[in-house]
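Subject: design request, 209 residues
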């Protein structure tokens, strides 16, 4: 019964994301191709950057919602009877990351179809990787499982994870407006890929759960 419930919830997550992805595609297509012109920094350019930040915030917010209760509602006594704590933690982190990817995939594909490569990578790679770090830090530093408010350490974690994402929102718009060179996108993707891998993968291979 529990497995079936999780599958239904995954499909609900995917259908919600698919709907948002369709909306994002048409809205961002209008903004990026009908409004933004290469005339330098203008109010329209600022509006496009705000739109990019808003789209990234959608993915980030749903990542928090999908992972904020990680480990808290799991029947650990049942899971740990068939595997070691380290095995359980790794499998659980991977499954939650895949759940986040199920949500972010349609939006990432929509952004990729629009040529928003940096923002698409945020949904296809950076936000799912961020979930590993957020879940791990929540499991270690959540002060009260019955009152899942952010502790100072978790607040810092949120800032560390989201700040690079909010910063990259400006890059595609600045390239479109011919303010920065196009190769900036390539270096940004490489840098952020290394960054998010370096802060997430260590939690997967850690033995200190």
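Subject: RE: design request

Done. Sequence follows.
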């Amino acid at each position: 019964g529990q497995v079936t419930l999780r599958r239904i919830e995954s499909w609900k997550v995917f259908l919600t994301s698919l709907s948002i992805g369709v909306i994002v595609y048409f809205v961002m297509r209008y903004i990026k191709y009908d409004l933004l012109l290469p005339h330098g920094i203008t109010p329209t350019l600022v509006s496009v950057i705000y739109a990019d930040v808003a789209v990234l915030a959608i993915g980030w917010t749903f990542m928090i919602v999908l992972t904020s209760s990680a480990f808290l509602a799991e029947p650990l006594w049942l899971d740990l009877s068939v595997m070691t704590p380290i095995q359980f933690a790794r499998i659980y982190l991977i499954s939650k990351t895949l759940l986040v990817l199920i949500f972010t995939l349609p939006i990432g594909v929509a952004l990729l179809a629009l040529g928003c490569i940096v923002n698409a990578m945020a949904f296809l790679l950076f936000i799912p990787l961020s979930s590993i770090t957020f879940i791990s830090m929540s499991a270690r530093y959540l002060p009260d499982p019955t009152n899942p408010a952010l502790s100072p350490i978790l607040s810092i974690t949120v800032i560390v994870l989201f700040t690079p994402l909010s910063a990259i929102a400006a890059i595609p718009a600045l390239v479109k407006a011919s303010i920065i060179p196009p190769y900036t996108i390539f270096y940004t993707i490489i840098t952020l890929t290394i960054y998010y891998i370096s802060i997430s993968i260590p939690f997967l291979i850690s033995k200190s759960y």
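Confidence is low (pLDDT under 50) at residues 1-8.
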